[in-house]
Amino acid sequence: MKHIVDIKDLSGTEILSIVKRALYLKKSRVVPRTLDRKYVVTAFFEPSTRTKLSFQRAALSLGAKVIDLAPDTSSMLKGETELDTLLTIEAMDVDAIVIRTRRNGDPAKFSKHLQIPVINAGDGTNEHPTQALLDITTMYEHYGKFNLRVAIVGDINHSRVARSLTEALAKLGGSVIFCGPEEFIPKSFPDVSLITTDLQEAISNVDVIYALRIQKERIEEVYDNIEEFFKNYQINESNLEMAPKHAILMHPGPFNRNVEVSDGVVYSSRSRILDQVRNGVYSRMAVLEKATGAYEYESIQSIEKFVVI
Known about the structure:
Elements: H1 12-27, E1 39-44, H2 50-61, E2 65-69, H3 82-90, E3 96-101, H4 106-111, E4 118-123, H5 129-143, E5 149-153, H6 160-171, E6 175-179, E7 192-196, H7 199-203, E8 208-211, H8 216-219, H9 237-240, E9 248-250, H10 263-266, H11 273-292
Helix pairs in contact: 1-5, 1-11, 2-11, 5-6, 5-11
């Protein structure tokens, strides 16, 4: 049993093993029912489409039964705390719980009280480990290597995706650039090679342009007309030409059309956005197997042979 609440919980070799398993499951004609007779609970205290449905699809594909907690119709409306709700669910003999929260650090806090695996499906502006894993899987599937240059563009300060992806890439030899309006990028960040407000500087020599959603629900109370802050950072046909011809476009979704990404590029030949969604299912299948101990992962002594120069 293994909690997966932070990308820092995983070593580089563990990330590699999850990527390899995800791509194996994607190619398999017959999916192993490694979670047969197990129960997986999805407890999302914040709205989600991609993450929630892909976890449910992943669990069902592996043979598990899925129980979805609907907070709006739960005893929390009567004053029960989230932790007490989760402890109650655990007492029903379930095998794993996937949690999304609005507050930073809640999944890690809950994991200290729960005996079943806790998988973080996103907590506030803190971490989103399975998004990073599916992104790494998508990059590796396309390029066949991990030591890539990735420019993350947009609202970095409020992005749990940027944090987790940067940490994951650092473990695998990747290089990360942050780019966005000055108000929305950190002054410094571990393992980031460049932080800039200049989009051309950020994407002129990268393999991946990773556009972020504007976190309107987190910042609209502070800034008016926040789209104006990002008008110079939209990824569109014009500025995509500033990047190398081989560079691909990614976005964690959901996206604001014609804000972070234009209609002309969102599903273009250079876009891997729908590949990310598809790989989210298989990456989360691998995560569920690892967290529950349902699959014995092979021992990978080194990632060096997978880092192709």
